[in-house]
Fold:
Amino acid sequence: GGGEYRLPCTATPELSRLLATPQNSLLHIAACRGLVATVSTLLSKGAAPDSRNAAGETPRDVAHAAAAKRTASSNALSIVEKLMKAATPKKVEGRARPTWT
Structure:
């Protein structure tokens, strides 16, 4: 039968929020927790750095939010940089040529 999952007593409010937000990937959670090696491994295995959870956040967004907190892991900024480098560059469309009448 299905049982209820309970967070360990050591879970932080940020981790609790991430686990409660639908569509969070392992990359979202590793980015929030400051797990540099895990983020690197997930990216090397093809994890999507631009994936969005149900709240519309990317792993970089949650890493950036974690970095902004006073209690942030010293790894948080390193993770933000890794995710920025791994993100797919946005395609910039050329400007339309003006039409003269």
Observations:
- DSSP finds five helices and no strands in the chain.
- The helical segments are 13-20, 26-33, 36-44, 59-67, 76-86.
- The radius of gyration is 18 Å.
